[in-house]
Design brief:
With 228 residues, this protein is of the alpha/beta class. 43% of the residues lie in helices and 16% in strands. Helix 2 (26-47) packs parallel to helix 3 and helix 3 (66-82) runs parallel beside helix 5. The structure holds 3-methylbut-3-enyl trihydrogen diphosphate (IPE) (2 copies) and magnesium ion (MG).
Length: 228
């Protein structure tokens, strides 16, 4: 029987290269990437995937030119709430992970509003990783636990102090655009995740690519340290 992963992580890479190939500014690639993101979410829904985490902006992406960073922040503030009918029609609940407190005010507010406005949706939970870094996530969880007076740090304690502890660990991480690295994505929860790398640039992704990931997932023998 074909098994559908409960949670897929997407490292959405290659927006800049996609634009460059078309002699367009990198920002055009990010806009095209947003369209792909919607198709991929619909693909997840069609396949019955219950959780998806999308890597939107890393703690390292601040190193990019100010124009590009500002454009991405603008996408968060202008496009996220604009898609509210899309989320509500399709039962999409939005969450964010990462420190959004340091985002420009309008971007932060739009994200918080979108999370609140989609709270009751239950077809799929889409976790947007924004100003997210796997190392920062672990440190933040440990610091939260320490500030509660917890003296013994265990894997369970760390997980319980994540931004959204109710989101189960990712079962497979898919990355577009050929790079074979995690780039600080889901370091803790990827302990037993499967990995799938694709050359296709993110803006070219659609519903079918989700089927491809699930097919790939079904070729893997997962043992979690035990025996098959
Ligand atoms: C991914 O595409 C989007 C973000 C990191 C925000 P890139 O912008 O990294 O695209 P490439 O890797 O330069 O092609
Ligand atoms: C990872 O892509 C971050 C996101 C997809 C948001 P990058 O393009 O930033 O990763 P590196 O720099 O190639 O490792
Ligand atoms: Mg990149």
């Amino acid at each position: 029987m074909r098994e559908v992963p409960l949670h897929i992580g997407f490292i959405m890479d290659g927006n800049g290269r996609w634009a460059k190939k078309r002699f367009m500014p990198r920002t055009a690639g990010h806009l095209a990437g947003l369209k792909a993101l919607k198709k991929v979410i619909l693909g997840c829904i069609d396949q019955g995937v219950r959780y998806a985490t999308l890597y939107c902006f890393s703690t390292e992406n601040w190193k990019r030119p100010a124009d590009e960073v500002n454009y991405l922040m603008g996408l968060f503030s202008e496009k996220i709430m604009g898609e509210l009918p899309f989320y509500n029609k399709n039962g999409i609940r939005l969450l964010t992970t990462g420190d959004i407190s340091i985002l420009p005010e309008d971007a932060r507010r739009a994200l918080q509003d979108a999370v609140r406005a989609t709270e009751g949706n239950d077809v799929i939970t889409v976790q947007l990783a924004i100003n997210y870094g796997g190392q920062a996530e672990i440190c933040q969880a440990v610091n939260r636990a320490l500030s509660e007076g917890i003296r013994e740090i265990t894997p369970e304690v760390i997980r319980a102090h994540f931004d959204n502890p109710e989101v189960p660990p990712v079962e497979i991480i898919a990355r577009s655009a050929g790079e074979k690295r995690l780039s600080n994505f889901l370091l803790f929860d990827s302990a037993y995740a499967e990995f799938a790398f694709y050359d296709k640039l993110w803006p070219d992704w659609d519903e079918n690519d989700v089927c491809g990931i699930i097919d790939e997932f079904n070729t893997r023998v997962r043992k979690f340290g035990g025996l098959a």
